[in-house]
Design brief:
Chains A, B, C, D: Pfam families: Aldo_ket_red. The structure is a homotetramer. Chain A is built from 14 helices and 10 strands. In chain A, strands 3-4-5-6-7-8-9-10 form an 8-stranded parallel barrel, surrounded by 4 helices. In chain A, strands 1-2 form a two-stranded antiparallel sheet. In chain A, strand 4, helix 2 and strand 5 form a beta-alpha-beta unit. The longest helix of chain A has 16 residues.
Chain lengths: ~325, ~325, ~325, ~325
């Protein structure tokens, strides 16, 4: 396992990391989560990601129960604030929700501080100076060591850094975008100035494009698959054309390359993300330990991705 | 119930809110207050306003007793500091009184923090930089999430924002002025630059002009009415011409419109305040639950206030 | 008793105040001190001054024992840091001594915070930025509400304010100089720009010039008098010419005026200090309650000091 | 014992001080350390230096056990953060390691704060602004009173001071370099602008060049000597030519001067360091109390180092 710096900053996280989205509190209870996290740590994963929104706080609670068995300095724990409930002040990036959300997340996690805290989405209804002052409060009071953003636009990140400079606030060091073979625009184009000017790192999610990049939807939506169980997600993907013929054709082509180099298609998709030097860590979501073990093999597959193979993939994706 | 942003900021408060001035600790004890606050919350009110000065701290104590039964993130609690006692340092906006006043208010409220804390009046005897540094202390130490002012002039607000910028202090986000059909100058003219330049919101008090706008003083001062019981208030209103013939004539004219649209005159007066988009919340003072229920119907009346009706009211008030 | 603002700032202190120098821990034990402080408070004194150096910390301890019986917001308590012991880091205005000194003073005083904390002397061995950052720490951590200096030169005060502006630190609001009829230069000339530019107030000590202005040394040094008991003090005064013939002649002249207006000479000397509008409070040191009562009559004497009388005194002192 | 200011700053430390490198937790257990520290303190040493890295935290623990018997204000305690373990975030100057390292050091030391905290080495992998913000956090939260660096280059120190100015952070006041007769370049040339522009002081280590300057390696490496026990150190010195003929010749020449002035060669080497006015303190590492007593005599030897003797030494070292 390689440990990468988060952008230009001093924090180091494992190139593969374990997320809790859709799994902790759903497929995984405390015991399963413990098994997965211990296996992950044994294999060099030191970064564990959660959010107040996941399973209505249950994901944080489960992760907190397991984290007690780790040495605090060995791990990097992140959470994200945005959706904390249904009340008028339970969501968004107001000072009220950011502070109350953080205090409550730390209670569920049973931690004094998280390493990273993310603004889980941009909030156009709150002025950036309010958000920046609140995140600065969180850092300067020791509730988190670093802060980041998730799914903010390049312009929104520019505005955040400008406000930090003007208000003498500590700036964000990391973005958490969706990134995979089928969604590359933001990470590979829009964020370019952000890496260079501000040295931000990336922790990326959805490396398998909700499973599409495993090839399992190549012949329609199987019963009991995630897309069958979450019709909202299916609709969302359809609207973005990700279940269309053109996409499936590309996925099949990529599948052939996977076969050639002796890898599962999912492993190839993960390894491909790791080849991007601006990516600090690719967050895995796993339903069980076997899936985790399978995904970890992406590290070996990464070694097989020569420039020539990468070039072929690039052509397919164009 | 509509939830409005406080000016441009991320905090959201119900357009109608419940104050404790003249009522908590007077007409309302802990049990009555609890009944009123629960009814208010059930109807969507999330903002509860008090002050260290109200009933010599009793209003805060009563509100604190009731607030224990609410989820902290569901509510927005404000208090105000200025009149804390009779000693030389018990009033005004010195650092000593602002900090001691806040510490003591929080004890009476039994809270770790309030959402909003107001400077209850301007204090020309204290330099603005002292006040601004003290409010910044209160925010940065987590005793309050936001701060505001009450009954400050436009120039005083300008000075406060200028000092905040120069001293790198967190600026006020809200003013709490008196505002009703009979007192419009400040809110509709003097503060205009403040909304635009600083995005401040308003929480307004005295929507019924001490009862004048209910029409109950149209034929003199009834026994047992508030003006009969508080001669000081009566004198104050008389001096400002608010009990004069010209005013009563206007109130009667407005009364006819209320009748036309099938509303109580008090409901029309409240609804009229709500039509001003710069108003974030209109603070109600109620003596009992029935009055609260009656006032809440202003929300329905608001829907009936067409442009044409508003224009007619405007003409009457001129 | 008049309450004066400390310079332009919002803090208000009684024009006469009670110090603990040379008395608390020497002539006054806890019981005597309690009696004196209660009498002082009853007569309107709200400001009580001490220092870590007085009686090796005993003065602070005694004051702390008595302060428990006062309401915290009723009083203004000050201490001063500079001489805390004999070790290399027990004195001066280094960050180490300022912070350790303050922590230890608060323990002896049994208080969470003092209202005012003074740098008891300038420290040419410590750079002003170190001192300013340390005092800012003390204020921003709630250990004191305001800070001041004692016996700093006009240039040193200029340097302090300049450093505060450059380092975004909270500035000092008060100086504590020696001031009486025989020592006027600094307060009446050197500090003039300081009042105007920075609005600093003054709490002055030694209003009776170690007793010279009571007239009791007009015919030599009586046995058991303070100057007989403290030969160091006597030498110090002699070196500054304050026990010379010229001085004694002036004191006798002033004595005649006192007699004319029906005042004790000590009361006239105190009242004369109070006539200076830049003086916020004159600190009294008393050995017993009777002396305190006698000194408090200076307030009445102040009313008798017409412009004409002040002019005559001015001529004598020239 | 002379107490020197740390550069231009107000903190005062004894010119000789006691370190814990290679000794605490190795040759010295709690009892031996206590004996040494008490002897040191009795002789005027007030500065005790340790680091998280020394004996894997054991040096801090031992020092903490002994420090309980000292008055906190009498002593100046320092630790250093850089090497805290083997995990990806256990070393270097990231915010994560600096804060976690400091929290853990304070626990081992059983202290609320250290006087000085050093960045034990430069960390080119972490941007200076991250380190500067983290050290500022440590100071502003009262975990340390001052901060410094160890073995940073002149350029790195320039960059640190520039970042502090730009980010309004409290700057470092002290460097801890290696300094002795055989390694003079950095202290005597590279750092010159640092003393003048920033008033930094120096606490220097390795005054005897790992024992070479005692003369004990003049005839090869004796069995059981430090160089025999630590082959890594031996190799390191050999690579830098410090065990070569040319060096040994110089050491022998210096030895003759020591003999002339009636001093042990080690005492002369220590006294020579003390003659540099930019040195605030020379840190001694001792294996037992006798060695400490012997080293303390360097203070007397210092008095014998006339300009003429210093000139002769200078010629030899050229």
């Amino acid at each position: 396992m390689e440990y990468r710096k988060v952008g230009k900053w001093g924090l180091k996280i494992s190139e593969l990391s374990l997320g809790s989205w859709l799994t902790f509190g759903n497929q995984l209870d405390v015991d399963n989560a413990k098994e997965a996290m211990k296996e992950a740590f044994k294999n060099g994963i030191n970064f564990f990601d959660t959010a107040e929104a996941y399973a209505s706080g249950m994901a944080e609670f489960i992760m907190g129960q397991v984290l007690k068995e780790f040495r605090r300095t060995d791990i990097v724990v992140s959470t994200k604030i945005f959706w904390g409930g249904n009340g008028p002040n339970d969501r968004g990036l107001s000072r009220k929700h950011l502070l109350e959300g953080t205090w409550n997340s730390l209670k569920r996690l049973q931690l004094d501080y998280v390493d990273l805290i993310y603004c889980h989405r941009p909030d156009p209804e709150t002025p950036i100076e309010e958000t920046v002052f609140a995140m600065d409060y969180i850092i300067r009071n020791g509730l988190a060591l670093y802060w980041g953003t998730s799914e903010w636009s390049g312009d929104q990140l520019e505005a955040a850094h400008k406000a930090c400079r003007e208000l003498n606030c500590i700036p964000p060091i990391v973005e958490q975008p969706l990134y995979n073979m089928l969604s590359r625009e933001r990470v590979e184009k829009e964020y370019l100035p952000i890496y260079e000017k501000y040295g931000m790192g990336l922790t990326t999610f959805s490396p398998l494009a909700s499973g599409i990049l495993t090839g399992k939807y190549n012949n329609g939506i199987p019963e009991n698959s995630r897309l069958a169980r979450f019709p909202g997600l299916r609709k969302h993907l359809e609207e973005r054309g990700l279940l269309g013929d053109e996409t499936i054709r590309k996925v099949r082509e990529i599948g052939k390359i996977a076969e050639e180099i002796g890898a599962k298609q999912s492993q190839l998709a993960l390894a491909w993300c790791l080849k991007n030097p601006n990516v600090s860590s690719v967050i895995l979501g796993v339903s069980n330990v076997d899936q985790l073990k399978e995904n970890l093999k992406a590290l070996e597959v990464k070694e097989k991705l020569s420039e020539e193979v990468m070039e072929r993939i690039k052509k397919i994706l164009e």
